[in-house]
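Chapter review: from sequence to fold.
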Amino acid sequence: MHELISFTRGVPPTEAFPTAALAEALAASVTRDPAVVLQYGQQQGYPPLRALLAERHGVRADEILVGNGSLQLQDLVASVLVRPGDTVLTEQPSYDRAIATFRRRGARVIGIPLGDDGLDLTRFAAEVARQTPAFVYLVPDFQNPAGITTSAAHRRAIVALAEQHGFWVIEDVPYRSLRYRGTAEPQLRELGDSRVITMTSFSKLLSPGLRVGYMIAPAALITRVTREGENQYLSPVLPTQAAVAELLRQGLLDDTIAALLTLYRPRWQAMLQALDQTLPGVPHSTPDGGFFVSLTLPPDANSADLVGRARAAGLLLTDGRAFFAEPLADTTPAGERFVRLPFCAVTPEQIAEGVRRLATLL
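The token string follows.
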């Protein structure tokens, strides 16, 4: 029987976790500050962590809200900004869980086609001129699921349109630190922060189980979102937030990121090499970092029941249709031909074999 190879979720492998450092940080945080860490806490998050993050990003502490991962923060922001029937714009394709979250809050989620340097600016500008969205949701660095990075020119244009039309921009940047080559583009908030909400988490850098993410936004919006959080959960999870603060205080986060780059870079290289050698006729994204490479199969490829046939061959794939929001009137999404290939939780050998199995199905 084939070894089961999983190209499904974008999760870090167990060997990526800084287990010893996390154990020491958790113990230190609980023993150093038990009256705060083990008690009901401030809804905006563990104050020392907010202070450290504010210093790291050059903002005020009242511009930061720490939550239980970035998806929870997306849900809180949507609950504040979205009214039933409002429009939310995303890249097409986009993060499937974000699409589902915004829809649960009553939004009509519309996808703007994604190109090699970001979403289609012509279509985006036309859509926001036709109807002002509650916000646009972007993953501008090594996008989930496509792997695309939005260019600096596109970032400037998006910020300018947000300021002109008065909508919010959520830039979700959990993969930004995982760059394997090249230089970083500016964050959107660096280009104009009055309409930008920056979200990220420590799930990809330390551990998903910690459930620690944070957002940076104007203080007035932070206050509104914090108040909404108080209505949904009683207290933040302070022990894990305090552990992250301890790692930041010790300067261990940057060391951990460096170790992740060493672990992930060979897997990134293996995925790009396997696609070039095994599927030379199928164009794929060529990200400079992150967790994902993607491809859209040509129309004549055998994409019927691809997920089911792949499972029978010992290969787990995610149904590409989940990554597509409602299309614009003049576009036709190719979700059934879209394939996301996460590479960080599989070895180079598994990557080569997994791509070989995929090729036999097409």
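Two observations follow directly from the output. The chain has two domains: 5-16+254-360, 32-250. The first strand starts at residue 5 and ends at 7.
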